[in-house]
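## Example record

The block below lists the input lines for one assembly entry, exactly as stored, with component labels intact.
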Amino acid sequence: MSLLELERISKRFGALTVADEISFSVGEGEALGIIGPNGAGKSTLFNLIAGNIAPDSGTVRFGGMDVTRTPPMGRCLSGMGRTFQIPQPFEKLTVFENLLVAGSFGARRREAEACDRCAEILVDTGLFDKANVLAGGLTLLQRKRLELARALATEPRLLLLDEIAGGLTEAECHQLVATISAIQQKGVAVIWIEHVLHALTSVVERLLVLNFGKVIGIGKPDELMASRAVQEIYLGIEL
Amino acid sequence: MSIAIPSFKVETRSGTSSLAALAAFAGLALAIAAPLVVSRGVVQDLFFILTTLVLAQNWNLLAGYAGLISVGQQVFVGFGAYAMFGAVILAGLDPIAAILIAGALSALLAIPTAFFTFRLQGPYFAIGTWVVAEVVRLLLAQWKALGGGTGTSLPRDATRDMIGVDLIRDLFGMKAAAASDALTYWIALLLALATIGFIYRLLRSKQGLGLAAVRDNEQAARAVGVDARRMKALVYVATAFVTGVAGALIYVQKARISPDAAFSVTDWTAYVIFIVVIGGIGTIEGPIVGVVLFFLLQKLFADFGSWYLLVLGVIGILVMLFTPRGLWGLFSDRTGIQLFPVRRTLIGGPPAHTPKGGPNG
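Predicted structure tokens for the full assembly:
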């Protein structure tokens, strides 16, 4: 049985259709990449999955349960961890406290139980040095790392990553890819929106190409990228 | 990725806090003994300081932690006071018992109030709370049994025969008026300590951490599983209870009520906001510093009429411009001293290997 299942999800903002009958599913521990030109509806799709936007029609199922009308908090508690494209740290809390919020509320643990795990995640994501620094004082890159770390602290079954590799150097990008691969190998499913294609394809098994709110194709990265429709739509704009 | 993690420790207590605890005990002993030592005028001043502190701590919890900037907290002061008057005059209850009933009724009032105001965000919420306060004031001004628009007084023997007044008279040989002042003062002291204790405990708990997250970024808080709405509602109702109790207590001591005074936005909200802002919003110490400063300013400038308000305004603006975290924030940043530490500090060295983040981390 698949972990996440979208069935004919549609969403319109006025005359603009941002999600047009989108259907796909992601299995336990699977990694799916989502690509598409700017304005293709990637972030909207993300918000539909995470529950920040309610669809006009269609169903979202997570772990076999219908969560179409479940708000973001409920989806988090049932095992969805997300990052925001524009980082949203708790600025007056320290980096460690940021994780502790996620680790105690999102993972439904007592604070003392969450501490060790949060400290481990700080090590894994390279934020340990910054543990006791206020999150408001972090650089953009550190904030993006914090987004990932905080999402991980909720102990998700499905991790939703929204453009966290943008602006990273080559070396940093390698580290990020290694971190995400390791997370996936622990059995966490990943849905990753990214413009940095080589980072994405080194992690994900399948790609989904989106344009004007429609799924143009879904499948193995190399097969998909070779198809003419995708090259025209995606690479045509990108190059 | 199997790295041996040394066991981490989390600390919230700082070295200064134990010393401060000792000083606090001494201060507490003095505060308890005050009515036996100082004059009645001073006891009344201290009563004013303590009750204002309770209002300030509550507004601080509401605005500084739950992010609910209310300018309508006078609704609970006034409603609590009126509920106490009603319970004493109409039901013949003892004023001290009526104070608790007033708190409970204020918490009840908070439920329909929240129903309307929680639909509003930011500045709209602020205005909404004020509108609610005005509506309740106008409604209570229609209540003829409690004096309508002109107000009424507590029956003289009601305050004189309060539970405990006789005992204090006999024990310390005080006159009835002094004994009732001493009683309300001790209750105010108890209320202030309980309020600070409750808020401190809350902030050190998991719920307090969630509350801080909601304050900083509500959307992100929801995304990591914090029930922001429920948390804000609970804080709103809890502060309504305490504010109602404080309002009732203030009016037991005043013994005279009118709608305009009991629902005064200046006395019960504007001054309180001033206190919290100059002291330092989002800290427990801030309102304490603020209330002392406010009291001193009031004593200094009380004879200068409207100049007093001008001076308050100028100080408020200066503090907001130059030390947005208030005087306590300024002091705490410079010295690192915290009397009520709530920060969770992760201690314990990082593992032997270099963290994955490298130098850019």
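Strands of chain A lie at 4-13, 16-26, 31-35, 57-62, 65-66, 80-82, 158-162, 189-193, 206-211, 214-219. The mean pLDDT of chain A is 89.
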